[in-house]
Amino acid sequence: MPKQTTLYRYLTGPDDASFCHRVSEALSRGWVLYGHPTLTYDEKTGRVICGQAIIKDVDRAYEPGLDLSKE
């Protein structure tokens, strides 16, 4: 039986609807929120940048070349 692995991603982007859609899409694909969201202000662009960690358990061993965005 393959070893179970917890995958980790940290999504970032401007504080807008597209960021919320990216998080919602990941949640619909089995990812789970991990910790609190973060916010910072980018003075160059004048925008707030969001961040949210997400995790997902999978039934296989971790491989460094794994494309987490396709999980």
Low-confidence stretches: none
* Mean pLDDT reading: 94
Count of individual helical segments: 1
Distance separating the two termini: 20 Å
Fraction in beta strands: over 45%
What is the number of E strands?
3
Describe this protein's structure:
This protein has 71 residues and is of the alpha+beta class. The chain has one domain: 2-Layer Sandwich (Dodecin subunit-like). It is 17% helix and 46% strand. The chain has one helix and three strands; from the N terminus they run βαββ. The protein has one helix spanning 17-28; strands at 5-14, 32-42, 47-58. A three-stranded antiparallel beta sheet has the order 1-3-2, with helices on one face.
Could you outline the blueprint of secondary structure elements for this entry?
Elements: E1 5-14, H1 17-28, E2 32-42, E3 47-58
Antiparallel strand pairs: 1-3, 2-3
Structural descriptors:
elongated; alpha+beta; 3 strands; 71 residues; Dodecin subunit-like
Short description, anyone?
By secondary structure, this protein is an alpha+beta fold. It has one helix at 17-28, and strands at 5-14, 32-42, 47-58. The mean pLDDT is 94.
